[in-house]
User: Which sequence fits this backbone?
């Protein structure tokens, strides 16, 4: 295994050298069976150092792929066209111009997108990802059926069906999700060798990917300057190498101002022996697992969402359906809404604080009928009202109790196993051998900790809250 890892890195570096890549001899690529590839500093590295340059023409994009004409004739662009480019180059094997790069990549990244439906239902039960991944899998399958299958019929002599099946398409999509970068207006998204070797660490970026726009490559390239990969929610990933390999690298004659090159630039000092990290953005574990296939324990960017449907479920235990719908309608008239066009939901922060929109909705739900009707009338006459409400005055005992009930309902989605069961399972789990189980447990536990913090928030607020002026609520019929 060690010999194989050494050979694939050596082949990759030969490929980079022959394609005009430049990289600092201060970088060490380390490849291990347990952690894959990472990049470490062989000596002190300083802010502002350009530690790698990647030619745009050596990146795997729709424009550079041998399948460019096929893709453009079929009017396929974006991630769909890039997936075709990856599958096509893989079908060429050693004859592909990217063979030295492709042999370094896994067949697919372990994103939930490529898990089985049973694994998604079992491992992601109750999490923010379960429904999202199920929907993703259905949409990706439809994309393959509607766009890839017709390609095989229209280009039978150019495309090998073995490399364009649904599994190969899902695999290509997983690589794009976890490794692609925005290059420029001409190339769009693409696979950027070398840049995708740097691992992610939330909030701890050492090196930054930059793409200088080039007016030479497309008449449409009007924007000059830097394209920021964090702002575009794109990333790099992992990889490794043995000590001192880069010392024999011959830099090409490309100048620093040449816009045909992409760059990796140090944004802070890194000590000798430390790993050099890129960052894919300030993302919680649900987003990290969804896009990149891993999680981080104690991720302060974690959140939990409470869907409007759960609010309605709770509301039905106290009020009539008519009462619930009318109060939600008034809430919307006041200018409030959830976070999505397709489904409304409320965010609970890492600290357990509920989104103000949820507190306001609960406040409106508990309004006495006479107050509600006056407010509804005033909105109809005068328009929007009170959108700058403060959270603290609204935290009545009724609202605190409602938050506790919503926390219990949200917790129930995880099934019969308690958080203690999940914690024990994580302690027994091998990060290397059971990565799907490991990362799904980290996600479940991180979400359930937030729900517990929501309970603590509601309980603490309840001790200092005053009862509302609303009369005691009892379940009513329509």
Assistant:
């Amino acid at each position: 295994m060690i010999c194989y890892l050494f050979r694939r890195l050596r082949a990759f570096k030969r490929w980079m050298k022959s394609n005009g890549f430049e990289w600092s001899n201060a970088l060490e690529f380390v490849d291990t069976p347990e952690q894959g590839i990472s990049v470490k500093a062989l000596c002190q590295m300083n802010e502002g150092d350009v530690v790698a340059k990647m030619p745009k023409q050596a990146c795997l994009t729709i424009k550079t792929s041998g399948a460019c004409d096929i893709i453009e004739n079929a009017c396929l662009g974006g991630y769909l066209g890039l997936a075709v480019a990856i599958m096509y180059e893989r079908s060429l094997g050693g004859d592909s111009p990217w063979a030295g790069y492709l042999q370094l990549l896994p067949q697919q990244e372990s994103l939930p997108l490529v898990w089985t439906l049973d694994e998604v239902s079992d491992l992601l039960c109750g999490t923010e990802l379960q429904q999202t991944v199920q929907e993703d899998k259905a949409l990706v399958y439809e994309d393959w059926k509607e766009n890839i299958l017709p390609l095989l019929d229209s280009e039978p002599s150019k495309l090998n069906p073995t490399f364009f099946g649904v599994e190969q398409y899902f695999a290509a999509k997983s690589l794009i999700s976890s490794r692609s970068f925005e290059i420029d207006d001409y190339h769009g998204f693409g696979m950027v060798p070398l840049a995708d070797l740097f691992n992610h660490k939330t909030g701890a970026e050492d090196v930054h990917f930059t793409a200088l726009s080039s007016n030479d490559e497309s008449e449409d390239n009007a924007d000059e300057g830097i394209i920021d990969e964090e702002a575009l929610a794109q990333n790099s990933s992992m990889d490794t190498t043995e000590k001192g390999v880069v010392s024999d690298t011959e830099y090409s004659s490309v100048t620093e101002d040449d816009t045909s090159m992409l760059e990796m630039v140090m944004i802070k000092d890194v000590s000798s022996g430390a790993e050099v990290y890129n960052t894919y953005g300030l993302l919680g574990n649900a987003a990290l697992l969804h896009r990149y296939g891993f999680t981080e324990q104690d991720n302060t960017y974690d959140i939990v969402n409470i869907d409007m449907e759960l609010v309605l479920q709770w509301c039905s235990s106290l009020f009539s359906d008519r009462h619930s719908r009318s109060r939600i309608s008034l809430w919307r008239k006041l200018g409030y809404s959830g976070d999505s066009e397709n489904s409304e939901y409320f965010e609970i922060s890492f600290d357990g604080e509920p989104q103000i929109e949820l507190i306001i909705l609960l406040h409106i739900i508990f309004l006495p009928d006479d107050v509600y009707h006056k407010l509804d009338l005033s909105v109809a006459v005068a328009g929007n009202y009170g959108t700058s409400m403060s959270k603290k005055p609204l935290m009545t005992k009724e609202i605190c109790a409602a938050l506790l009930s919503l926390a219990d309902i949200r917790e129930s989605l995880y099934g019969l196993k308690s958080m203690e069961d999940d914690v024990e399972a994580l302690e027994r789990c091998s990060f290397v051998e059971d990565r799907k189980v490991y990362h799904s447990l980290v996600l479940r536990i991180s979400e359930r900790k937030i729900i517990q913090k929501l309970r603590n928030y509601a309980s603490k607020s309840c001790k200092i809250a005053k009862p509302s002026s609303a009369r005691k609520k009892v379940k009513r019929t329509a």
